[in-house]
Amino acid sequence: MKIFTINPGSTSTKIALFDDEVCLFTKNVKHESADLERFASLPDQIPYREQIILNLLEQENISLKDCKIFVGRGGGLFSMEGGVYEVNDLMLDHARNNANGVAHPANLGSLLADQFSRIGGGRAFVVNPPDVDEYQEISRVTGIKGINRASHIHALNHKETALRHAKSIQKKYEECNFIVGHIGGGISIAAHKKGRMIDGNDIVAGEGPMAPTRAGSVPADQLIRLCFSGNFTEKELLEKCTKSGGFVDHLGTSDALEVFDRAENGDQHARLLWDALIYQIVKQIGAMAAALHGEVDAILLSGGMVYNKSLVENISEACTFIAPVQAYPGEFEMQAMAAGAMRVMKGTETAKVYTGVPVWTESRL
């Protein structure tokens, strides 16, 4: 059972070909910024990215003729439950037009998967796209009417990490309560209750721990005053919260390994920032434990920064009173997309239908 997975990014497109669970080929196809700037919109990039991929496959002597399953990253959709969704016309229309208001390269995933499926004559899917929102309603309420919380986390990697751990302890994901932390360039920590992510930190809205490039939660009064200080434009402050905050703002680098090395070599400011990041992660884990009423089967850590053994040890030392801590370093996006499609093809999971009806609307509050 061959599966071709596609994960578009801002300056690259990751592709991988699987035969069942075995990865036969993977490549991160780079795109020159000048080439992408020629296109007026993201969807206009589809023929360009498609041809780049086809050229690469031809160079590598890889044929997709016997591949009948194509999986894209997905995005641009209205909120939905987690799961595997077969690409339909409504999904393509919403992805093409950024229906949820978020223009992100991941939106091209379903469009590219559909395009390749038409070439190969197969089926196209998305698996746990960024638009997954399974929050319980009480998690959405804030102290300001009209401002409500929504789920924007690393849903694909969260779900895959939880599924892997559940399998390792011979249980179903839907039988377990986990706290999953994706710790990389962005950091999202969520409470998984019986197969649903009921609460977490919204990385798009700037919640939770700071990260290498993100500010995380900051005091609202000081941020408001900064907004009206005249020293920053709206765009500059939004970027400070989501692109140039965290380690970048304090230390001038987004390289977490560099920050750790500086801390280990006596840089006291780097030490403070490294320890503060871990402290904030631990606090968020504690909050998710409370959301689960203390009924936690395991705390699972994934993402690139989890390769750092010191980080894992420090989090474990602080949190093992809640539940055992298990590290799954790295990202599993390509494997997760293939695994989701395989579950559908093998009949262990049923593909869902994208309806375009949000799982939750602000009018309810």
UniProtKB/TrEMBL annotation:
<protein>
    <submittedName>
        <fullName>Butyrate kinase</fullName>
        <ecNumber>2.7.2.7</ecNumber>
    </submittedName>
</protein>
<keyword id="KW-0808">Transferase</keyword>
<keyword id="KW-0418">Kinase</keyword>
